[in-house]
Specification:
This protein has helices at 7-20, 45-55, 69-85, 139-148, 165-174, 196-209, and strands at residues 30-31, 59-61, 93-95, 97-104, 107-114, 152-155, 179-183, 212-215. By secondary structure, it is α/β, with parallel strands linked by helices. It has a single domain (7-215), classed as TIM Barrel (Alpha-Beta Barrel). Strands 4-5-6-7-8 form a five-stranded mixed β-sheet. Strands 1-2-3 form a three-stranded parallel β-sheet, covered by helices on one side. Strand 1, helix 2 (45-55) and strand 2 (59-61) form a beta-alpha-beta unit. The N and C termini lie far apart (38 Å).
Length: 228
């Protein structure tokens, strides 16, 4: 794997965060599943990261579908804000992110990517705003592309698909997946809360296979604190 050496510290810190995630981590401390107007969300990335600052988040990732344009816009806003605030306020860590549609056991799933090098040739085919087709849509190809670009691959909301976590997670493990989105609000309740039954099943599987665990609101609306 040949990646930007500067990404290694970022990935190390991200793994550490994922290892420390609890049901209380999201959405007030971390949020690793967010969408903007650059895919199917309603929020401008600048407004999204501004909310993250105002709520005091420690870290987040914008995971638009098949594009990093929202992440790049948020990165520019955060860099300007950081200069203007001159260290007066705590800056949340913004990791690169994306959500990619893939095929796993004949089922359409979503794979979240984090901390990858945006310029790496392996990931570029997945950042053109379109779902991959053919060989490129296979989960193994998506996972390998993210990892070759120096990132982590995480199976999004494992209890939302035609097949359940007991089938999909072991299959993803065989393909080298790094983690699962363990904390997710399947009932879309307000305020956001990780669904206890699904969370327990997914945590048991993640622990059995030694996977990292993430959390996210999967926000598509005008607030990063809920899904819609």
């Amino acid at each position: 794997m040949v990646v930007n050496p500067g990404l290694q510290g970022s990935i190390t810190s991200l793994k550490s965060v994922f290892q420390s995630i609890t049901p209380e981590s999201c959405p007030s401390i971390y949020n690793f599943h967010l969408h903007t107007v650059y895919s199917d969300g309603q929020m401008r990335p600048e407004a999204l990261v501004q909310q993250a600052v105002s709520y005091g988040l420690k870290g987040l990732a914008i995971t638009d579908h098949h594009t990093v344009a929202g992440y790049q816009a948020a990165r520019r806003w955060l860099d300007r804000w950081s200069l203007q605030s001159a260290g007066e306020h705590l800056e949340p860590y913004l990791w690169s992110g994306v959500e990619i549609t893939a095929q796993l056991l004949g089922t359409e799933v979503h794979i979240l990517g984090y901390g990858f090098d945006l310029e790496h040739s392996a990931i570029k085919p997945y950042l053109y705003g379109q779902s991959p087709v053919g060989e490129a849509s296979k989960a193994v190809q998506v996972i390998q592309a993210l990892q070759e670009a120096g990132g982590l691959a995480v199976l999004a909301h494992p209890a939302r698909y035609k097949l359940g976590p007991a089938d999909l997670i072991p299959a993803a493990v065989r393909l080298g997946i790094d983690g699962v989105e363990a904390y997710y609000c399947y009932g879309n309740i307000d305020p956001w809360q990780s669904s206890p039954d699904q969370t327990q099943r997914i945590l048991e599987l993640s622990q059995a296979y030694g996977l990292l665990t993430s959390c996210g609101t999967d926000s598509h609306g005008l607030s990063i604190l809920k899904r819609i």
